[in-house]
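== Sequence, structure tokens ==
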Amino acid sequence: MEELIKKAKTLSEALPYIREFYGKTIVIKYGGSINSKELDNFARDVVLMKYVGMNPVIVHGGGPQIGSYLDKLGLQSEFIAGLRATNAETMEVVQMVLVGKVSQDIITAINLLGGSAVGVSGKEGKLILAKKLNIMKYAKDHDIEIPPGSDIGLVGEVEHINPQLINTLDNSGYIPVLAPIGFDNKGNSYNINADHVAGKVAGALNAEKFIILTNVTGILDKKKELISTLHESAVKKLIHKNVISKGMIPKVICAINALNEGVRKVHVIDGTKEHSLLLEIFTDKGIGTEILI
């Protein structure tokens, strides 16, 4: 009986958060480094969010999966400023893995648990209009040192998000699962960093929360201890000191951009922890790092 009462209290304590976020959009960036067992826990959280009246929108990465397939094909991976350089051959693999593999795994997990997920790439419904990323400007803007004349290839950045398709899916009871591939007005496809896409989607949807799921506890300081709150003013200093480095750089940058575009709150949390989404949304303390302007 005591265990049942404890469960009832937990549900009761979640009521204010359910009321607060009812009808609100929560954009979730799902990291490709999260494994299949953790995907099941993630899918349960997302389905519950939808059933209690929230509108979860998932944008997923797939870096490890892309790297694995490139290795199998004997193609080398090169990273510049934390982003994967992408030639035409690599772009074919990127599309195959993100749309044909990662999206389908997430959709299947959600649907098996009673949700209704629909996969889209940035090409569907003209969702993501993109252009080639100017990597030299990107590195300069964010105080990252890269070799002169570096070419990132078919890596893009978002020019415009057309949220109509996502809104239509949300309003029809579906959970959108978005692969971060965009296109330009000439029909060229671009591999876009999933964090960047997720932040832009969150801004276009005027999201209540933008949650970045990773396989670490959050953003760590030089002593490898969790930074619970991180302000924009400290970001460039931490990047310059190499405290924030590699794949965490685009996560932090897109978080700041999303906040400047009207997103209410951004969180970087450990998606490998069981029910990490519910812990973040339905508790006072939350987990991970909260990023503020």
The two ends are 46 Å apart (CA to CA). The chain has a mean pLDDT of 90. The chain has one domain: 23-292.
